[in-house]
């Protein structure tokens, strides 16, 4: 857990006060709607299809029980009793009134939270591995670096009006759980001659033009991190296109000008900027690291209860098989609580569930909670002896779904049910797929399979990196769903390939069912995942399953 | 049947207040305290000492008309008296009440002005505790700047405490602040420091009883050095009734003369307010897409460089300004075009001296908005040691 300083608290209080003032000025007419728009966007307020939407940052996915309870209060008091966790470690409330938003921001500020830079053409919420500080495979905890970047980017005077939004992700582990190469800047912790630093890639992104980030610098020492980031932003602010919003992201500049040109520009800017950092940032970094309390991990407590519960209770065993990950301490486990109950909206949590999660984190999990970019909640430090009791409590709160990484653990954007940009619905498709495979009782046999659904070309549902991606479009007023195959959002990132013509909303579920049966027919054995089979065999057998008429002809 | 009304005891109210404000930032405690009916009429008590300016700045932001009680023991450093005037004027505090012991009381108890050497407790009582308690009689609660880190004797203080000296609640918005928090706040808000701080006085009281503190000592170690005494008395003992002198109101900060925008003439926005353009020399105009690295941009000799903002959403000008400053440009830098009030601090922090807008925008967004947007922006960058 990061404990905020008084400075952090004063900052968010100040920003909440400013926004209250800006809302009043919009109402009085001192600000035009055009002028108010970027200001509300800098404070996470969007105008959606039906209402305003408030997007709140959960920096690097780390949240305390008190903060989670405050989100519950907000959901209960100012929204419809629930919130939606997003694919970038934010939470969105979809039904606030504009006049209530200053009060909501005040309530957030009370617990050190905010909606600053969760939207707008600026540096967005910095994301990181949701297993940070707990995973067995980690080189270093990425969160102190993510927090340092958060502080540097917050209210940076030069970069509030960039050509387009700008996203940064940090991974401290060779197994990339933060999808760093789909970000404008992706940072991967590496070591060189005993010194810690980052491999920096730039120009990744999904959206209309999915591109994998390119390495601009193989090793930037920790002490140069902020000036190097500032150099990239300075270069982008100068050369990023402003004539077409669909070509304004850094990835397009990298594609059009070439990575070598961008590298040269960044190196020049770095030489200008580096002397302006006097090293205080490294002292602050040490202080930040100290503010992330370490979990107290006890050795010697028996885990026999865990083994006994696995033997005795098949429901518990099934959940433990899918929803646990290896902790760096052998007696502990990382628990992922699925927010993907079959038939429910992926990523939604009610205020009751938020309170239960906060309580359970305190009771069993050292008060540590995480939000994953896959829209689930993580309890990173659970002793194995407590798992059975935790699972029972989760089931009581309808949070015991055992489907992590399986076909029903779907990422879906809000789609046409909420979003003004969407061209098709995504949530009902996710719900129908989850329900169908639950009926078939095939989910566990299929094994790891990531389905990701976006309701428009902007790809908020990350469909490009789904093993199976579904993109909802509008074809002459009718929803039409395209399927992509073979995408991957990990360190072996690849962009999925389009399989062929789209499907209507009535055809898409049977098509996915055929595709999955086709995979089960061709896989070598149960250990070969969908993605592995796709990489081994290529698209043809999968296309044949999707389009049987064509295969027969 | 008579209705039973339970009035919570003061300790219960204090416990409830501490619970309610548990997660609040200092400024929020302060803002809400001034409105909370449970706290009634609230005054602030300030020594205008080493760290006082942080809390005074906050109170000025929240409500500059809040009564601020300043006890002049008539034994203070002349620097403190001058600093009190400076801070009150800069922050625009409208109700600073200077509290002194009556001449009669002093004549009776300390005619030679040497009581501090023979009986410091009696001296504090005479010059500080008694007059202050009298002045506090019209209030239900009072705000102090006490912080846990200051001394071992203050390690347990909370946001709200019972005042043992009278039926009042003490509010300590900075209870949880560290020395670094105070220092950050003062730097980030560009507040004037007490002149004695740089001479080794982290805690400043009356001249005869305050000495400098060495590195590694408790910050209050210089108060009543060599004595058992750690607090002056206003923070833990009651006093006897005494008449006080009437408060002297501070003059309000003079407002800048009203400026009327004229159609067709540019309005120049600076930290000091709106003004007509006073520059008559040659201006070097740069468009927002100017490439500074091209050889034909010769900016070094220019007296005034004006950078275009064709739209407020086009932030390229901020980077141009920043790069000019990094390249050593020392002349006048002006942002020109569609820049809105909320961008004023960004422009200033990117290296601009001023903004040029048209009369329409100046009327729609009057100086008050620009001023407000440029106040109190705590800066992470400054804190991270990134130089302007």
From TrEMBL, chain A:
Signal sequence range: none
One GO MF term attached to the UniProt entry: heme binding
Natural source organism: Paracoccus aurantiacus
Keywords assigned: 4Fe-4S, Heme, Iron, Iron-sulfur, Metal-binding, Oxidoreductase
Keyword set includes 4Fe-4S: yes
Listed name of the protein: Nitrite/sulfite reductase
Segments forming domain Nitrite/sulphite reductase 4Fe-4S: 119-271, 409-542
Domain Nitrite/Sulfite reductase ferredoxin-like intervals: 52-111, 347-397
Keyword Magnesium on entry: no
């Amino acid at each position: 857990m990061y404990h905020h300083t008084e400075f952090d608290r004063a900052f968010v209080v100040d920003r909440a006060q400013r926004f209250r003032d800006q809302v009043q000025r919009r109402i009085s007419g001192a600000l035009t709607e055009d002028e108010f728009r970027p200001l509300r966007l800098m404070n996470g307020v969007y105008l959606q299809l039906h209402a305003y939407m408030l997007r709140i940052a959960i920096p690097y996915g780390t949240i305390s029980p008190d903060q989670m309870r405050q989100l519950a209060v907000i959901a209960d008091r100012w929204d419809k009793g629930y919130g939606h966790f997003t694919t970038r470690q934010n939470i969105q409330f979809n039904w606030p009134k504009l006049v209530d938003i200053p009060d909501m921001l005040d309530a957030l500020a009370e617990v050190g939270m905010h909606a600053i830079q969760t939207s707008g053409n600026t540096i967005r919420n910095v994301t990181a591995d949701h297993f940070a500080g707990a995973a067995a495979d980690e080189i270093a905890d990425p969160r102190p670096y993510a927090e340092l970047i958060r502080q540097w980017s917050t209210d940076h005077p030069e970069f509030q009006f960039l050509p387009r939004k700008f996203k940064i992700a940090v991974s401290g582990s060779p197994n990339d759980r933060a999808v760093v190469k789909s970000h404008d800047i992706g940072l991967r912790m590496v070591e060189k001659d005993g010194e810690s630093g980052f491999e920096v890639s730039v120009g990744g992104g999904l959206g209309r033009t999915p591109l994998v980030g390119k390495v601009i610098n193989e090793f930037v020492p920790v002490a140069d991190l902020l000036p190097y980031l500032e150099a990239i932003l300075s270069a982008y602010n100068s050369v990023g296109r402003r004539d077409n919003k669909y070509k304004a992201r850094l990835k397009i500049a990298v594609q059009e000008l070439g990575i070598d040109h961008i590298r040269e520009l960044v190196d020049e800017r770095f030489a200008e900027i580096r002397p302006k950092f006097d090293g205080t940032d490294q002292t602050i970094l040490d202080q930040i690291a100290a503010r992330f309390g370490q979990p107290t991990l006890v050795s010697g407590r028996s885990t026999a209860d865990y083994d006994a519960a696995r033997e005795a209770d098949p429901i518990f065993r099934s959940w433990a098989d899918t929803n646990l990950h290896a902790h760096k301490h052998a007696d502990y486990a990382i628990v992922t609580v699925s927010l993907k109950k079959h038939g429910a909206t992926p990523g939604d949590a009610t205020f009751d569930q938020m309170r239960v999660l906060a309580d359970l984190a305190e009771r069993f999990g050292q008060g540590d909670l995480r939000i994953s970019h896959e829209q689930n909640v993580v309890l990173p430090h659970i002793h194995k002896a407590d798992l059975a009791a935790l699972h029972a409590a989760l089931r009581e709160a309808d949070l015991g779904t055992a489907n992590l990484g399986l076909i029903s653990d779907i990422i879906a954007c809000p789609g046409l049910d909420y979003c003004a940009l969407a061209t098709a619905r995504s949530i009902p498709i996710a719900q129908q797929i989850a329900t169908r495979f639950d009926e078939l009782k095939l989910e566990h046999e299929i094994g790891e399979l990531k389905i990701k659904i976006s309701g428009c070309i902007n790809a908020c549902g990350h469909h490009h990196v789904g093993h199976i991606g579904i993109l909802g479009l509008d074809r002459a007023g009718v929803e039409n769903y395209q399927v992509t195959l073979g995408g991957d959002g990990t360190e072996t990132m690849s962009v999925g390939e389009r399989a062929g013509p789209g499907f209507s909303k009535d055809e898409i579920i049977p098509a996915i069912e055929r595709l999955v049966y086709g995979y089960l027919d061709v896989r070598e054995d149960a250990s070969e995942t969908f993605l592995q089979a796709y990489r081994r065999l290529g698209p043809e057998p999968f296309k044949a399953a999707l389009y049987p008429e064509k295969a027969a002809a | 049947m008579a209705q039973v009304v339970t009035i919570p005891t003061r300790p219960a109210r204090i416990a409830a207040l501490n619970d309610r404000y548990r997660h609040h930032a200092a400024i929020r405690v302060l803002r809400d305290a001034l409105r909370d009916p449970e706290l009634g009429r609230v005054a602030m008590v300030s020594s205008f000492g080493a760290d006082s300016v942080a809390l005074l700045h906050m109170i000025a932001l929240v409500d500059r008309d809040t009564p601020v009680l300043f006890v002049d023991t008539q034994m203070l450093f002349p620097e403190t008296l001058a600093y009190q005037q400076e801070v009150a004027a800069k922050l625009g505090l409208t109700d600073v009440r200077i509290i002194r012991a009556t001449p009669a009381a002093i004549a009776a108890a300390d005619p030679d002005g040497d009581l501090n050497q023979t009986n410091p407790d009696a001296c504090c009582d005479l010059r500080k505790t008694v007059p202050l308690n009298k002045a506090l009689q019209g209030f239900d609660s009072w705000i102090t700047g006490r912080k846990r880190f200051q001394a071992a004797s203050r390690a347990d203080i909370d946001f709200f405490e019972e005042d043992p000296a009278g039926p009042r609640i003490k509010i300590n918005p900075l209870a949880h602040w560290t020395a670094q928090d105070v220092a950050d706040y003062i730097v980030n808000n560009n507040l004037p420091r007490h002149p004695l701080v740089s001479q080794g006085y982290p805690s400043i009281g009356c001249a005869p009883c305050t000495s400098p503190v060495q590195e590694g000592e408790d910050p209050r170690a210089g108060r009543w050095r060599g004595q058992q005494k750690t607090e002056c008395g206003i923070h833990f003992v009651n006093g006897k009734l005494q008449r006080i002198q009437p408060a002297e109101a501070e003059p309000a900060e003079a407002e800048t003369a009203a400026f009327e925008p004229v159609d067709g003439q540019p309005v120049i926005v600076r930290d000091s307010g709106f003004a007509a353009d006073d520059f008559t020399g040659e201006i070097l105009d740069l468009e927002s897409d100017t490439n500074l690295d091209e050889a034909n941009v010769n900016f070094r000799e220019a007296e005034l460089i004006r950078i275009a903002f064709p739209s407020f959403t086009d932030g390229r000008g901020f980077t141009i300004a920043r790069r000019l400053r990094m390249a050593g440009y020392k002349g006048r830098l002006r942002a020109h075009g569609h820049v809105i009030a909320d961008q004023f601090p960004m422009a200033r922090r990117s290296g601009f001296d001023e903004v040029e807008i048209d009369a329409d925008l100046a009327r729609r967004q009057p100086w008050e908005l620009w001023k407000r947007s440029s106040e109190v922006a705590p800066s992470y960058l400054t804190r991270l040691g990134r130089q302007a």
